[in-house]
Structure formats: structure tokens, C-alpha cells
Amino acid sequence: MICPYCSSDKIVLRDGEYVCTECGTVVGYEVVPPRVKLATPVIKSRRIIALLEEEDKQTVKMKYSDMVKFYISKIARELGVAGIEQEAMRLFSVLDKRAYQGKSPRAVAAAVVYLATERARYHVHKRDIAALVNISKFTVRDTVSRLRRYVPATD
Asked: What domains appear along the chain, each with residue ranges and CATH number?
């Protein structure tokens, strides 16, 4: 930038104005682009819930026990074994809430269905049940061993 009056190239920026240091002439103003108002960030969980509601998912605002029952039905339907869903629902209803506290509803449902298949003397691999609800077979194993202590003995 050059001063139009004294042809000096000693221009500095002071208080938002370009000023010539030789003659003191204001050459121009600092051009500042307007500030873009940033949208307030949406909390991640609310964003996920909003996306799920857009997709019309049924499990968005269910109670924990309803979610477990939903997954029990899903697993039992996929396995196609008669009577497993009713037995799994019965086992889940007699479980103490503290037995599965802190566990994923998918893990609890998978474990309860596994215990129901054991009682019906029907062999299903833990990995097959785990694959249906997208969890690890080790999660199923750990949850089964945890819940087995709270399930009443077979008749």
C-alpha cells in the first residue's frame, strides 16, 4: 500500500485504520468481514434422538424393560424356536432389577434368551445370538454368568 499524498510505503494499521507514518494521512479502513453467527452446538444425544425420530424408530423413548422385551422378541423371532420367547419373557420378569443394572438392554435380552434356550434343552451358540443384536459373544457370556445367579432353578 502506498500513500497517495506523499508516495510513502510506510503504512501501519492503527485502531482499524491504515495510516501513513510520514504524513499522518488516513489511507483507508481495515476491512473486516462480518462475523458469522455460529449456531449453538446441539448435544450429541439429542442429535442422535432427533435422527432416530426422523427414521421413525420405535425404540427411541422406550423404558429399559420395554427395550429388553423388544430385543427378546427380535432374537426369539430370528431363532425361530417355539416357546423360547415366552420362557425368556418369564425369566426376565422374575429377575431382580439390580441383577442387570448397568448392562445394555441388548446384552440382557441376549443373555435371557440364551438362558431360555438352555432350559428348553435347545442348543444355540452365544455367537449366533450375539450376532442378531450386534454385540460380542463375550458380552453374552459375561451377562449370562451374572444373571444365572438370579434365575430360579429349573422345575
From this structure: 1-30 (no CATH), 58-148 (1.10.472.10)
